[in-house]
Amino acid sequence: MRKLVVTENSTVDGVIDMAGGWFDPLDNEVDRSDITAALTEQREAADALLVGRNTFVAFREFWPKQTDDTTGVSDYLNAVDKYVVSSTLTEPGWQNSTVLRGPLVDEVAALKAAPGGDIVATGSIQLVHALIAANLVDEYRLFVFPVAVGHGAHLFDSARVDLELLETRPFTSGVVLLRYAPKR
User: Fold this and answer.
1) Sheet of strand 176-182: strand arrangement
2) Which of 46, 50, 91, 178 is 20 to 30 A from 137 via CA?
3) pLDDT digits over 31-54, tens only?
Protein backbone atom coordinates (compact mmCIF):
# COMPACT_ATOMS: atom_id res chain seq x y z
CA MET A 1 0.00 0.00 0.00
CA ARG A 2 1.24 3.47 -0.87
CA LYS A 3 2.04 6.10 1.77
CA LEU A 4 0.41 9.50 1.87
CA VAL A 5 3.14 11.94 2.87
CA VAL A 6 2.44 15.54 3.83
CA THR A 7 5.48 17.70 3.04
CA GLU A 8 5.41 21.30 4.19
CA ASN A 9 7.80 24.19 4.58
CA SER A 10 7.35 25.72 8.01
CA THR A 11 8.67 28.53 10.14
CA VAL A 12 10.02 27.72 13.60
CA ASP A 13 6.74 29.03 15.03
CA GLY A 14 4.80 26.52 12.92
CA VAL A 15 3.44 28.74 10.14
CA ILE A 16 3.05 26.93 6.81
CA ASP A 17 1.38 29.57 4.67
CA MET A 18 3.70 31.65 2.56
CA ALA A 19 1.70 34.88 2.86
CA GLY A 20 4.40 36.58 4.92
CA GLY A 21 6.90 36.27 2.07
CA TRP A 22 9.31 34.21 4.17
CA PHE A 23 9.89 31.45 1.59
CA ASP A 24 11.37 31.69 -1.91
CA PRO A 25 11.68 28.33 -3.70
CA LEU A 26 14.29 29.68 -6.12
CA ASP A 27 16.41 31.71 -3.69
CA ASN A 28 19.89 31.28 -5.12
CA GLU A 29 21.56 33.34 -2.41
CA VAL A 30 21.47 30.46 0.06
CA ASP A 31 23.41 27.22 -0.39
CA ARG A 32 20.63 24.67 -0.51
CA SER A 33 22.54 21.88 -2.23
CA ASP A 34 22.01 19.55 0.73
CA ILE A 35 18.28 20.35 0.80
CA THR A 36 18.13 19.79 -2.96
CA ALA A 37 19.66 16.34 -2.44
CA ALA A 38 17.05 15.52 0.23
CA LEU A 39 14.23 16.72 -2.02
CA THR A 40 15.61 14.61 -4.87
CA GLU A 41 15.50 11.54 -2.59
CA GLN A 42 11.89 12.29 -1.78
CA ARG A 43 10.92 12.88 -5.42
CA GLU A 44 12.47 9.54 -6.38
CA ALA A 45 10.27 7.78 -3.79
CA ALA A 46 7.07 9.53 -4.96
CA ASP A 47 5.11 9.15 -8.15
CA ALA A 48 2.01 11.16 -7.28
CA LEU A 49 1.27 14.68 -6.09
CA LEU A 50 -1.99 15.47 -4.29
CA VAL A 51 -2.98 19.13 -3.97
CA GLY A 52 -5.97 21.39 -3.60
CA ARG A 53 -7.17 23.68 -6.35
CA ASN A 54 -5.41 26.86 -5.15
CA THR A 55 -2.01 25.18 -4.84
CA PHE A 56 -2.52 23.39 -8.15
CA VAL A 57 -3.32 26.62 -10.00
CA ALA A 58 -0.33 28.40 -8.40
CA PHE A 59 2.00 25.52 -9.33
CA ARG A 60 0.56 25.31 -12.87
CA GLU A 61 1.16 29.02 -13.40
CA PHE A 62 4.69 29.02 -11.93
CA TRP A 63 6.65 25.79 -12.35
CA PRO A 64 6.21 24.98 -16.06
CA LYS A 65 7.62 28.45 -16.88
CA GLN A 66 10.89 27.93 -14.95
CA THR A 67 13.67 27.39 -17.46
CA ASP A 68 16.61 27.90 -15.08
CA ASP A 69 15.51 25.42 -12.42
CA THR A 70 18.65 23.53 -11.39
CA THR A 71 16.80 21.69 -8.60
CA GLY A 72 14.76 19.51 -10.96
CA VAL A 73 11.46 20.57 -9.44
CA SER A 74 10.01 21.84 -12.74
CA ASP A 75 10.83 18.64 -14.61
CA TYR A 76 9.44 16.54 -11.79
CA LEU A 77 6.20 18.51 -11.49
CA ASN A 78 5.65 18.43 -15.23
CA ALA A 79 6.12 14.64 -15.34
CA VAL A 80 4.53 13.39 -12.10
CA ASP A 81 0.91 12.27 -11.86
CA LYS A 82 -0.92 15.19 -10.29
CA TYR A 83 -4.24 14.83 -8.47
CA VAL A 84 -6.14 17.99 -7.66
CA VAL A 85 -9.07 17.94 -5.25
CA SER A 86 -11.64 20.40 -6.55
CA SER A 87 -15.36 20.74 -7.05
CA THR A 88 -14.94 23.76 -9.34
CA LEU A 89 -11.97 23.02 -11.61
CA THR A 90 -13.20 21.56 -14.88
CA GLU A 91 -10.08 21.24 -17.06
CA PRO A 92 -6.71 20.94 -15.29
CA GLY A 93 -4.70 22.34 -18.22
CA TRP A 94 -1.45 20.61 -17.16
CA GLN A 95 -0.26 17.25 -18.43
CA ASN A 96 -0.64 14.20 -16.18
CA SER A 97 -3.30 15.93 -14.07
CA THR A 98 -6.55 14.45 -12.81
CA VAL A 99 -9.32 16.29 -10.99
CA LEU A 100 -10.73 14.37 -8.01
CA ARG A 101 -14.36 15.25 -7.32
CA GLY A 102 -15.60 12.36 -5.18
CA PRO A 103 -15.60 12.12 -1.42
CA LEU A 104 -12.06 12.86 -0.22
CA VAL A 105 -11.72 9.71 1.90
CA ASP A 106 -12.81 7.48 -0.99
CA GLU A 107 -10.57 9.20 -3.55
CA VAL A 108 -7.48 9.10 -1.32
CA ALA A 109 -8.15 5.50 -0.26
CA ALA A 110 -8.27 4.52 -3.95
CA LEU A 111 -4.97 6.33 -4.64
CA LYS A 112 -3.32 4.66 -1.64
CA ALA A 113 -4.60 1.23 -2.70
CA ALA A 114 -3.22 1.56 -6.25
CA PRO A 115 0.30 0.35 -7.00
CA GLY A 116 3.07 2.92 -6.95
CA GLY A 117 5.31 5.07 -4.82
CA ASP A 118 4.56 7.71 -2.24
CA ILE A 119 1.74 10.19 -2.73
CA VAL A 120 2.91 13.64 -1.62
CA ALA A 121 0.57 16.38 -0.48
CA THR A 122 2.12 19.82 -0.15
CA GLY A 123 0.83 23.35 0.35
CA SER A 124 -2.94 22.97 0.12
CA ILE A 125 -3.68 23.97 3.70
CA GLN A 126 -7.43 23.21 3.61
CA LEU A 127 -6.84 19.86 1.93
CA VAL A 128 -4.08 18.89 4.35
CA HIS A 129 -6.26 19.81 7.33
CA ALA A 130 -8.99 17.54 5.89
CA LEU A 131 -6.47 14.71 5.34
CA ILE A 132 -5.29 15.04 8.95
CA ALA A 133 -8.86 15.10 10.29
CA ALA A 134 -9.69 11.95 8.27
CA ASN A 135 -6.59 10.17 9.64
CA LEU A 136 -5.26 9.57 6.11
CA VAL A 137 -1.68 10.84 6.57
CA ASP A 138 1.05 8.21 6.94
CA GLU A 139 4.03 10.54 7.31
CA TYR A 140 4.84 14.22 7.83
CA ARG A 141 8.00 15.79 6.39
CA LEU A 142 8.48 19.28 7.75
CA PHE A 143 11.24 21.51 6.43
CA VAL A 144 11.55 23.99 9.29
CA PHE A 145 13.12 27.29 8.24
CA PRO A 146 15.00 29.49 10.76
CA VAL A 147 12.48 32.31 10.77
CA ALA A 148 9.49 33.22 12.95
CA VAL A 149 6.66 35.28 11.49
CA GLY A 150 4.22 35.36 14.41
CA HIS A 151 1.02 34.75 12.45
CA GLY A 152 -0.46 32.60 9.73
CA ALA A 153 -1.91 29.15 9.13
CA HIS A 154 -0.47 26.21 11.03
CA LEU A 155 -0.30 22.57 9.99
CA PHE A 156 -1.99 21.27 13.13
CA ASP A 157 -4.40 24.15 13.57
CA SER A 158 -7.35 22.36 15.08
CA ALA A 159 -6.39 18.73 15.50
CA ARG A 160 -4.31 16.92 18.07
CA VAL A 161 -1.99 14.43 16.44
CA ASP A 162 0.43 12.29 18.44
CA LEU A 163 3.60 11.72 16.44
CA GLU A 164 6.59 9.42 16.43
CA LEU A 165 9.90 10.98 15.33
CA LEU A 166 11.43 9.14 12.36
CA GLU A 167 14.30 11.46 11.45
CA THR A 168 15.92 14.79 12.19
CA ARG A 169 18.22 16.15 9.48
CA PRO A 170 19.87 19.60 9.74
CA PHE A 171 21.05 21.46 6.64
CA THR A 172 23.81 24.03 6.21
CA SER A 173 21.28 26.83 5.67
CA GLY A 174 19.83 26.32 9.16
CA VAL A 175 16.76 24.52 7.82
CA VAL A 176 15.93 21.26 9.61
CA LEU A 177 13.95 18.35 8.17
CA LEU A 178 11.71 16.69 10.75
CA ARG A 179 10.07 13.43 9.69
CA TYR A 180 7.22 12.06 11.77
CA ALA A 181 4.67 9.26 11.56
CA PRO A 182 1.35 9.40 13.36
CA LYS A 183 1.20 7.08 16.36
CA ARG A 184 -1.51 4.58 15.52
Assistant:
1) 97-100, 81-85, 46-52, 118-122, 4-11, 139-145, 176-182, 163-170
2) 91
3) 677 888 898 899 999 999 999 999
